Amino acid sequence: MGRCVRPPGSAFSISAIAIVCPANVRADAVVEHRAHWAFQPVAEVTAPASNEGNPIDAFVGQRLLDAGLSFSIAAERRVLARRTYLDLTGLPPTFDEVQSFVEDSAPEAYSRLVDRLLASPSYGERWGRHWLDVARYSDAKGYVDAGEPRNPFAFTYRNYVISAFNRDLGFDQFAREQIAADQLAGEDPAALAALGFLTVGSRYNFFPHEIIDDRIDVVTRGFLGLTVQCARCHDHKFDPISARDYYSLYSVFANSIEPTPDQAPRIGPSGAGENEEFARKLEESAARHIAVRKKLHERMMHEMRAWAGDYLRYIVQTTPEHRTQPQAELRTKRGLLREFSAYAGGGMVRWRRYLESRSTNDPIWGMWQRLTATPRHEIADKFQDLLEQWSSESSPNQTLLHALRHAEVANLADAADVYGEVLESTVEKWEKLLAESPEVVGLPDSDAEQLRQMLYGDDSPATIRIEESDDVYTLDESVEARTSFADIERVFLESWQGVAPRPMLLADRLQAREQRVFLRGDARRPGEVAPRVIPAMVTGQRPVDIHSGSGRKELSEAIASPDNPLTARVIVNRVWAWHFGRGLVATPSDFGVRSKAPTHPELLDYLARWFMEHDWSLKQLHRLILNSRTWQQSSIDRPECRAIDSENQLLWRANRQRLDFETMRDAMLAVSGRLEAFTGGPPVEKAPDDPENRCRTLYGFVDREKLPEIYSVFDFPSPDISAPERSKTTVPQQALFLLNNPFVAAQADAVVATVGDGDPTSRDAAILAIYRQVLGRDPDAEEMRLVGEWGVDGPSGLRELAQALLLSNEFLFSD
Length: 815
Known about the structure:
It contains 35 helices and 10 strands.
């Protein structure tokens, strides 16, 4: 199932999604869809009876036997060593490392090699990069027309991922921390950096609906292999995921806010950049931001009072039993009420909750409550009787009672007009009196003062504490607030290399908002209230109620549960694909009804259950896979097998794999002796093809909006969306880079510099050394003859040889 997204580079509103997505054409057979293999509990599978010592080989061997195929011979030890080094660390072995393994005849030699590489810091760097593809990692926010385009502390998430892999953090805990680290008891503050999983995504020029949609997508695709985003404007066409499910998840992230960086704890040692000047600038920028918040806070409360009639009219139009206007947009006397603007969205919730709490004898809202409880078609006939009942059974506000008695009220919308005029008139009177006499404490008329107290009192829906203001409006939607927020970020960026890192936090709103389903994905057309639950398709069983907070904690627990049928299957399949080049399920981020069936379904379930029973340990899973005969096979082609299984889906040989861009570049730096260690701080801003950039590619600056062209040439995934796998293209630009780019030439020069100056008396020794340096092996006699015919002589000739080997398939592919 494809992802429903806006066209690249566009900046249209949520309402435009209704044009992109088709009409509601969800399949009728929901029950049948729930019978889909991926939605069933992970089965307890027993490995087939076999002479193979590894259960993976038992499953694979049985399938091969059934198809009339067999395993290939084991790969040569030199080939296996290089394959394992590149797979686990992303770096090639040295000649000495290869020889050490080749000469080690102990039965446990390979297991020791795997253990040593898993213990290497390079393991976390290699496998952390795999997960960063899924997490759509970037050091920049993407296109923003106001604010700071860079993420000051995105690198803390990158560091967290690397550390988690190196520490072999259980994948269940890995999932919990990335969704709700701020809500897990007893966590080390460093774990808060895990929240970057949600916050490093694109900011879509701060369109809140797009940001929330992106977070739903990365969580559900990344952990569950579900295309929940497709239910944004209609029930999912294929999977049993409703629009209600989507907006239940939407509520989780709509009720989460991002604190400013200065509010985040330090998760590293303070650096030289945090001096008195830094502290002064940070304090000043934070004070400006607070001043903007106060200004918005006052404006918000003013408009919630002065626009009371508009709120009431909108509440009527979003209450199905009293709606009088069929059109999508309610036009008020101020135009379209900004329901989801900087503060009106939360204000609507507060007004609605306030009204629901009033009784039928309330002196102001008693009549409103009686009308709300009356069927719409009966209001016109019963209005006068209801008014007299209210008058006789309570002590109504006389100003309001007089206005209602002299109005024509045929429905609740008409009553909203009357209430609005009375309340807005009260605001005007009070503001005028206050301007004339600042010392006054109330309106002289008791009925007018009663109305004023309703609008300005402590229990008024429009009276909001400053610390609660984030519960009512979203700062991202105010240009003023975004600019002042960005000022704080820039203070950190000015001293980027020196300040102590902070995590990119999320926090729950103090009071959760209700969320309504957007009809056809249009925020201007709110429908029914979405349930405050984690949907059944996410939990794998039944909906889980959210009793407080945003629900991120409940979401994280549902995803990390061993009872969830998707989580373990999805990550096991990803790991398999990252090892073998293709997953047991060919669509790593889509396990829905439209996904391809697994090639080895019993093996997938066996591995998923084995993984959970072994503490969700990725390193233990690596050991199981790499110590299998299946993994250790030769990649040599066998035509008789290819005739039966041309795509090697049954795994009768190893898949030859081309190095991805990061591994290719890092390998060049490694064999040239120029690879520099990096401490994991702010990203290196030099271009990846800059000869002076010697750090692992993982640590380079990933600019979402201006991604260097070299990345796209070598199939680096777009950081705009979660990437299930890398594309594999062959285009002329790749060869041109390898032939002509100064970065490649610099590595060839460095290789030659490490093996001698090209003296003719040591030419053969230099050639031998270059082969060992680049390919990790000695040249054979035929290669020495060809090199001699080529006329390799002197530094320039050796440099050409070194570059030729860097360009060779043997270097650029893993066998």
